[in-house]
Amino acid sequence: MSSHTALGVLEFTGIFVFAISGALVAIQKGFDAVGILILAEVTALGGGVVRDLVIGDTPPGAFRNAWYLLIPLAAATVAFFAHPVVERLNFGVLLFDAAGLGLFCVTGTLKALAHGLGPVQSAVLGVTTGVGGGLLRDVIARETPAVVKYDTDLYSIPAMVGAAVVTVAYKLHWPLTVAAPAAAVFVFGFRVVAMVRHWRAPRAWTRGRA
Fold first, then answer.
1. Of 23, 61, 91, 117, whose CB has the highest number of CB atoms within 10 Å?
2. Is 44 part of any domain?
């Protein structure tokens, strides 16, 4: 499998799992079928559209390839009929979101590198790709976005680490067919462990009173 094919597989997988997370949030919020589909599409495609606009890849891939729209539609359909099995309450949403985070931060970083961005800029855009869809999902669902919520277990930090790993692998010419999926799995595992163990980023330091 070529690196280009591997990137495509990772991206479409990320679209599906992020769409599932968006659809499940919509179902929990009591949205109708149209609302479920909209939230699935926005969650799955939001980060990628922002990425493509930043690097000048226009029109964004979501508007050039019908599969980008059809995969979230399929995911929304699955969630609509099978959400009691898929959902497992809130943790099911978080698991799918963690999977999407890992996959999208990797594909976003690789696409930015392929378009000539520097390592730091590519990593930042990879994180943006990973968290963008979830941020839009939470805003539409009238939730404080997980990426900025103070009591949320580590979210953007796993994506930052994963994007950094991908950048190093790319610059050292490691085989991306191995490095990219490994980085995505690492981000997923990091995020899940952070959820289970409630690892959180530090808040602003406050001097104790005497």
1. 23
2. yes
Contacts for 122 with CB less than 8 Å, ≥ 6 apart? 109, 112, 113, 163, 167
Percentage of the chain beyond pLDDT 90 is 56
Domain that holds residue 12: 3-197
The Cβ of residue 61 has, within 10 Å, a number of other Cβ atoms equal to 17
**Residue 182 pLDDT > 90, yes or no?**
yes
Residue 208 lies in a domain: no
Under the banding of pLDDT at 50, 70 and 90, the label for residue 210 is very low
d(CA 96, CA 47): 15
In a domain, 131, yes or no: yes
Total domains in the chain come to: 1
Q: What angle do CA 78, 80, 83 make, to 5 degrees?
A: 80
210: in domain: no
Of 40, 20, 188, nearest in space to 101 by CA: 188
The alpha carbon of 149 is separated from its chain's Cα centroid by a whole number of angstroms, namely 17
Tell me which residue of 108, 136, 67, 120 sits closest to 147, measured CA to CA.
Answer: 136
Phi-psi category of residue 18: left, alpha or beta, with phi > 0 → left and psi -120 to 50 → alpha? alpha
